[in-house]
Amino acid sequence: MNLTLYVWRQKNSKDKGRLVRYEAKNVSTDMSFLEMLDVVNEGLIVKGEDPIAFDSDCREGICGMCGQVVNGVPHGPRKKTTLCQLHMRHFKDNDTLYIEPFRAKAFPVIKDLIVDRGAFDKIIQSGGYVSVHTGGVPDGNTLLIPKHDADTAMDAAECIGCGACVAACPNGSAMLFTAAKVSHLAALPQGRVEAARRVCAMTEEMLAQGFGNCSNHYECEAVCPKGIKVKFIAKLNREFIKAQMPGNESCTGRG
Amino acid sequence: MLLPTSTVGKKIMMAITGQVLAIFIFFHIAGNSTIFFHALNGYVVALYKLPLFVWGGRLVLFLAFVFHIWYGTVLKLENHAAKPEPYAKTRYLQATFAGRNQIWTGVIVAVFLIYHLLQFTFQVTNPAVAADTHPDALGRPDIFMMVAQSFRQIGISGVYVVSLAALGLHLLHGIQSSFQTWGMNNERTLPVIEKTGNVVSVLLFFWYCAIPVAIVLGLLKG
To answer: If we measure between CA atoms, which residue out of A168, A147, A150 comes closest to residue A230?
Structure first.
């Protein structure tokens, strides 16, 4: 199949950037989207041009490294699929594709389709952990966790931190990402202890990093390659309200 | 307390003030529906016999409006700043027209509200039909005459229907959104709350429109 690509090219974070047209010829339907770009890049290298820069790592849909906006949808048109797992058979011959980087103030473009998602690391550093004493390995089943709670925690923990939620959100909000981590840890007894401090610190850091506020459009849920549900944002809101109750002196910042 | 500055806190302020206003919107049309039974003037007289309720209610509504507009503007500006560059191609999968235009339907409703207050509360837009200076046969302010004379003009009724459509869209996103902000959603309740919010918004729109439409069509005569 043959495709017309309009790819965002931007030399560095200072460059203004623009869409550049490329023709992708003889694309195999068995290729993944990233392999298609690899082939386009080989052609560019042969011609002596700068290849299109994009992120990727595992190419198995589990690392959260890849991510581009294809025709206005982060990770492309297929539901619950990362870009690396999106195969070209889901496109038609002679399709025109607009390929853009994830856009948000908190995700500055480094080059072409690569954005700096370090702001996510800052949110995790602010509270996305549990404080445990080191020592001997605890016996199995010392802490009994109800099946339902374990399932909830695992559903939330599926987040791979790719940033598609931020890219899709009209407000550039990181609520789904933050809510997934808050919900994951609050559902388990090891994380419950620090739940109030965590929800305040992480939402505060989210704003400080320049992400927007959630206005319940649910675009994030629609594009999430791991199918993280917006019910976790409701859970974050509940955790936040609980954290305001007397006795949670840790909630004192801007939040 | 983190209500005024935190991201969730600002949204909770939007939700609580919005819900107060939505409750008023229901009772406002429920009370005004006495017009269909030619009992509007009597209803207004009965209402004003409860000054504490009327003025307490007005104070609550005024504060709700001020905070709703203030936090709505703050959130919108912050959100706008967080997404400085648009995509060349935009495609929404789940975000609704109502949700994406919440700020603009809000502006329309706010402007309409000023007109509505000047018209029927302060009664300055058309002194010839002002109820306070034109009592009915029983000596009560003739609210019915004022409303009927105003809505008989198709332009005024048109402004009302358009503004009510904006209000309906605002509620379409606002009602279900406020429950999510309160954290009341889970997989089981989310679709129920969404559907209920949509049905309530559409019903309120038609209920409100019924008064000007009935007067324009001549179904409701003085």
So the answer is: A168
Instruction: Spell out the domains of chain A, with CATH numbers in brackets.
Output: 3-110 (3.10.20.30), 118-132+139-243 (1.10.1060.10)
The pLDDT assigned to B123 comes to 96
Per the CB < 8 A criterion, the answer to whether A98 and B89 are in contact is yes
B199 has a chain A CB within 8 A of its CB: no
pLDDT digits (tens, 9 = 90+) for B143-179: 999 999 999 999 999 999 999 999 999 999 999 999 9
Q: What angle do CA B1, A130, A145 make, to 5 degrees?
A: 100
Closest among B65, B43, B61, B53 to B147, alpha carbons compared: B43
Q: Which residue has the tokens 């959130």?
A: B75
Q: What is the pLDDT of residues B87-125, one digit of tens each?
A: 999 999 999 999 999 999 999 999 999 999 999 999 999
Q: Which residue has the tokens 């507009």?
A: B69
- Phi-psi bin for A146: left (phi > 0), alpha (psi -120 to 50), beta? beta
Give the pLDDT confidence score for residue B21 in this predicted structure. Answer: 98
Which residue on chain B is closest to A232 by alpha carbon?
B186
Q: Which of B211, B205, B207, B180 is nearest to B193 (CA)?
A: B180
Token pair for B78? 């912050």
- A207 at the B interface (CB within 8 A)? yes
Q: Where are the domains of chain B?
A: 7-216
Nearest to B2 among A212, A238, A244 (CB): A244
Question: pLDDT value at position B2?
Answer: 56
Q: Is A32 helix (H, G, I), strand (E, B) or coil?
A: strand
ipTM for the complex shown: 0.92
